[in-house]
From TrEMBL:
Its cofactor is heme. This is Sterol 26-hydroxylase, mitochondrial. Heme binds at residue 451. The keyword Acetylation does not apply. GO terms for biological process: C21-steroid hormone biosynthetic process; cellular response to peptide hormone stimulus; cholesterol metabolic process; cortisol metabolic process; glucocorticoid biosynthetic process; vitamin D metabolic process. Keywords: Heme, Iron, Metal-binding, Monooxygenase, Oxidoreductase. One of its GO terms (cellular component) is mitochondrial inner membrane. The gene is LOC115062233. SUPFAM superfamilies: Cytochrome P450. GO terms for molecular function: heme binding; iron ion binding; monooxygenase activity; oxidoreductase activity, acting on paired donors, with incorporation or reduction of molecular oxygen. Gene3D superfamilies: Cytochrome P450 (1.10.630.10).
Length: 510
């Protein structure tokens, strides 16, 4: 069967992706710009059978990012049809071509699986699911209090408080460990941090994720998110008629139920508090949720949809990026040391740095940029360009062609990033003219539909890193071997990561 599906190409798959030559120079059927534009039909394409074989029998279902590298860089070139009716794009130049021709109200494509749940249960759409002019108005509203640098800095105090509790928790976990410095499953701890942090901004309330015992409702919510994301790819890929026949749909719906029940409970509680203030003529105090709730254009069902989507988007993304960061720093002591020195130079010791100070440390920013290049937390993204037919890479595409952006393959392109599998924050420190191509790594997306939480995510990540690095030297677990990534909608570590947090104030820190 393998021979039938991959007549002359299957040898490629025997090489581990991490060491394979990855270069956008592999442009087998890529036309030069002098040629007459070709059409969709001229593109190299993956058959649906091949895709199924790769996903199911070769196990790429969980490693879609690796499949991007195999298919786009080694087999089909930087633009091809991917077996699901989309056009895959995997070079910085082609990505730029598509994004610069994007619609006024960009669309990521079919979100019907997410919409179906909201329609079934009577919830409104949030920034992910909303489209067209309604999406645009919603984004205008959300951007004001979240995306603009000045407005995001106002959350510095809230995040600092959560970070302080997180470092206390790390200290407690270390003390409980047999060696006095070990934290097991760091990803889980960072997940709790990210959830506590984004919830404290959105709901203006603490959830208790960083306490010794996590409240039961919070744990149910965490489990519900995991369940929804785990079943999400199957729901997107499988035809609608199969939903009620196979178990994934039931699990998917149960996951969403848990997510919305939790978010709705917190929103309703806040609303009650606001109503009490109004009834007793007290000033209504608050930040994000209060701002949305007091916006008369938003119905309650839209508030539920919006806050829930913000909450969802703000947890796995930040926590996984932080997990990969600590993993890389533990494996690269010289980089960690440089970061420690720079942080110590920029910030006065033993003082909680302000949000403004923290966003101005070049090496800290470079470390996060490099982590997001190596592990783009959203490894696949897309656009459907509906307004005009467009030409990309010398091919002419009709309106409504769905494009899939292979961000993992793009940010591992050898021509843009020499030694793409090596962690080198210095890449991002050069002067503006010699920085890597702008579209080589776009972890937060591009344009008006890019990540609304970017500023908050950066602030959270910088703050927690500064606190950790000032207090601890982070060392790897010697028992841990190579660590691969899995695609679970976002890019996650394949196995739990344990780390040693050696207190710098003790003599045993190197
Ligand atoms: C490391 C952290 C994060 C990364 C790498 C990240 C990345 C992304 C990416 C790639 C997109 C799609 C952009 C596009 O299509 O062009 C996106 C969208 C989005 N992100 Fe983030 N994100 C992060 C954190 C957050 C946080 C903390 C929040 C919430 C406060 C958030 C909320 C959203 C929302 C609501 C959207 C949809 C925007 C829209 O469609 O209008 N993200 N993010």
């Amino acid at each position: 069967m393998a021979v039938w599906l991959f007549p002359r190409r299957c040898w490629l798959l025997r090489y581990p992706v991490a060491v394979a030559h990855v270069s956008s120079r592999v442009t087998s059927s890529f036309p030069t710009f002098q040629e007459k534009p070709r059409s969709l039909a001229d593109l190299p394409h993956v058959s649906t059978m091949e895709l199924i074989y790769r996903m199911v029998f070769q196990g790429f279902y969980n490693r879609i990012h690796e499949l991007q590298v195999c298919q786009s860089k080694q087999q089909y070139g930087p633009i091809y049809r991917d077996g699901l009716k989309s056009v895959s794009v995997s070079s910085p130049k082609l990505l730029e071509e598509v994004l610069r021709k994007d619609d006024k109200f960009p669309s990521r494509g079919d979100m019907s699986a997410w919409k179906d749940y909201r329609d079934m249960k009577g919830f409104g759409y949030g920034p992910f699911t909303e489209e067209g002019e309604r999406w645009y108005s919603l984004r205008q509203l959300l951007n004001k209090r979240m995306l603009h640098l000045k407005s995001s800095l106002q959350y510095g105090g809230t995040i600092n408080e959560v970070v302080r509790d997180f470092t206390k928790r790390i200290q407690y976990l270390c003390q409980c460990s047999p060696t006095g410095d070990r934290v097991t499953d760091v990803a889980n701890e960072l997940y709790l941090f990210s959830l506590e942090s984004i919830a404290s901004i959105l709901f203006e309330a603490r959830l208790g994720c960083l306490e010794k015992d996590i409240p039961a409702g919070t744990q149910d919510f965490i489990n519900a998110i995991t369940q929804m994301f785990k079943n999400n790819p199957a729901v997107f890929i499988a035809p609608k008629w199969s939903h009620n026949l196979l178990p994934y749909w039931r699990r998917y719906i149960a996951g969403w139920d848990g997510i919305f029940t939790f978010a709705k409970g917190l929103i309703d509680k806040k609303l009650e508090a606001i109503q009490q203030c109004v009834e007793t003529s007290l000033d209504v105090q608050g930040e994000y949720l209060t701002y949305l709730l007091s916006n008369t254009d938003m119905s309650m069902k839209d508030v539920y949809g919006t806050i829930t989507e913000l909450l969802l988007a703000g947890v796995d993304t930040t926590s996984n990026t932080l997990t990969w960061t600590l993993h890389q720093l533990s494996r690269n002591p010289e980089i960690q040391n440089r970061l420690y020195k720079e942080v110590s130079t920029f910030l006065p010791a033993d003082q909680s740095p302000s949000a403004t100070e923290i966003t101005q440390i070049p090496y800290l920013r470079a470390v996060i940029k490099e982590v997001l290049r190596m592990y783009p937390v959203v490894p696949v993204n897309g656009r459907v360009v509906s307004e005009n037919s467009i030409s990309v890479g010398g091919y002419q595409f009709p309106k409504k062609t769905p494009f899939l952006f292979c961000h993992y393959a793009i940010s591992h392109d050898e021509d843009t990033f020499p030694e793409p599998f090596t962690f080198k924050p210095e890449r991002w420190l050069r002067d503006e003219n010699s920085l890597p191509a702008a579209f080589g790594s776009l972890p937060f997306g591009f344009g008006v539909r890019s990540c609304v939480g970017r500023r908050i995510a950066e602030l959270e990540m910088y703050m927690v890193l500064v606190h950790l690095i000032r207090q601890y030297e982070i060392k790897p677990d010697p028992a841990m071997g190579e660590l691969r990534a899995l695609t679970r909608t976002v890019l996650i570590p394949e196995q739990p990561i344990n780390l040693h947090f050696v207190d710098r104030r003790c003599d045993n820190a190197a």
